[in-house]
Amino acid sequence: MKASELQIRQDLAAAYRLADFFGFSEGIDNHLTVSLPGEEDKYLLIPYGLHWSEVTASSLIVVDGNGKKVSGEGYAEPTAFLIHGAVHNASEKNKCVMHTHMLSALTITMQDKGRLLMGDQNACRFYDDIFYLDDYEGLVLDKETAQPIGDACKENNIVFLANHGVIVTGQTVHEAWESLYYLEKACKAQNTAMSTGKKINSINGQIAKKVSMQVKEEAQSESANAYRHFEALKRVLVKNGNKDFLD
After folding, report:
1. N or C: which end of the chain has fewer CB within 10 A?
2. Is residue 142 part of a domain?
3. Number of structural domains found in the chain
4. What pLDDT is recorded for position 79?
5. Among 85, 107, 109, which Cα is nearest to 97's?
6. How far apart are CA 211 and CA 230, in angstroms?
7. How far apart are CA 170 and CA 167, in angstroms?
8. From CA 128, how far away is CA 137, in angstroms rounded?
9. What are phi and psi of 37, to 5 degrees?
10. What are phi and psi of 40, to 5 degrees?
11. Which domain holds residue 155?
């Protein structure tokens, strides 16, 4: 195995472990995927039935954009390769795709025309980068149902799926993880603020856009905070005795 593939396997395994640690997982469902280096038509996927807390670098299977298993042991769950295949194929920017039903974001998708308001600094990270699919179409079991999700990810990195969950994309595992983490933080803050019954003091659009651009500029730097954050969390996994994700 090439060193680049081993590294990305370890990063995705860590993302699964961390998502479970922070409560973003839902049983054995939902998926995080990443394209293989130099083979963007193939991506790593958790075998169905494996809990996110069990994922290791070697347990991940390889599938192509049509859901055909290329290597590894285990079953590729249909909604995984349909949703993730559509998103990966939609744009070269979607190298890492994370789909979860994490509670705070899901709560907003359950609201009538639910929207993430620019109510705090974390929300501003996603200014003008969220696409909302406002109609629930049921389980994604065919390409026709998956296609609108893929189309929504051609330009945007965040998609809210009505009554379902969210899609987050990134160029790398650490970039997608950073968005997933702060998206849930922003959604939780909004839900908490709304529970007070008081009107949310929304941030001016120009300021929200400015914050979004500042975050994007930082992400393109050589020492991006997203990388630092992810590496720190990987060290926490190891220190807590969860270093087998590296295997």
Report:
1. N
2. yes
3. 1
4. 85
5. 85
6. 21
7. 10
8. 24
9. -60, 125
10. -65, -10
11. 3-237
Write the CB contacts of 227 (distance below 8 Å, at least 6 apart in sequence).
172, 174
pLDDT tens digits, residue range 120-161? 999 999 999 999 999 999 999 999 999 999 999 999 999 999
- Residue 183 domain flag: yes
In the chain, % of residues over pLDDT 70: 99
φ/ψ (deg, to 5) at 218: -65, -40
CATH number at residue 125: 3.40.225.10
**pLDDT tens readout for residues 157-172:** 999 999 999 999 999 9
Q: Which residues contact 127 (CB under 8 A, 6 or more apart)?
A: 118, 205, 208, 209, 211, 212
Flag whether 244 is in a domain. no
Residue 157, phi then psi, degrees to nearest 5: -100, -10
Q: Does some domain include residue 99?
A: yes
- Can you name the residues that pair with 35 across neighbouring β-strands? 43
Alpha carbons 76 and 191: distance in angstroms, whole number: 34
Residue in 55, 152, 40 with CA at minimum distance from that of residue 92? 40
Residues 6 or more apart in contact with residue 94 via CB below 8 angstroms: 87, 88, 153, 169
Strands (E), 7-90: 31-36, 39-45, 61-64, 69-71
